[in-house]
Amino acid sequence: MATQPTFGKPVSVEEYLSTVYEPDCEYADGVIEERNVGELEHSFLQLLLGSIFMNHRSEWGIVAFSEQRIQLAPNRFRIPDLVVVRSDFQRESILTHPPLIAIEIQSPEDTLRRTAIKAAEYLAFGIQNVWVIDPAARVAYRGTLAGLELVRDGQLSVPGTAISVSAQELFAELDQV
Predict the structure, then answer these.
(1) Is residue 156 part of a domain?
(2) When you count CB atoms within 10 A of the terminal residue's CB, does the N or C end of the chain come out lower?
(3) Is 142 domain-assigned?
(4) Is 19 within 8 Å of 7 (Cβ atoms)?
(5) Residue 8 domain-assigned?
(6) 51: domain CATH number?
(7) Which pLDDT score, from 0 to 100, does residue 3 have?
(8) For residue 64, what pLDDT band results from cuts at 50, 70 and 90?
(9) What pTM value is reported for the model?
(10) What angle do CA 79, 51, 67 make, to 5 degrees?
């Protein structure tokens, strides 16, 4: 993942938000951070998960968004692969309130260490359910205050809700591609 200040100097929040990046980039304390996207397994899992959430949105009382910008702090913007909000969420173009779930799907260039840092940022912001899916290793993690925790039973769920996604079923679908 490349991190590079534009023109050798920090970029302001205003400049970041008014510039078009292809693909979209994240922003942390004046630094533009590129995101790894576009790989087959990453792309397929992102679409599959989005479809699952869309198919259950009435039943689960949720809405899902792909690559939705979140402002975690005045100088920190992240773009998880997917976010899930409750259906009565406060509508805003850039989320400034914690969604119900933030999901990161690992790309080959991503490191778990870097993703664990992002998961910690999400948790500190108040996102209670952080899921990390690693298609290469065929494993899923939950973000916790202690770091990334392997989901041993394969069930990604949200306590107190009917939301439950089987990592094994996701990987089985991926194996069919």
Answers:
(1) yes
(2) C
(3) yes
(4) no
(5) no
(6) 3.90.1570.10
(7) 44
(8) very high
(9) 0.92
(10) 10
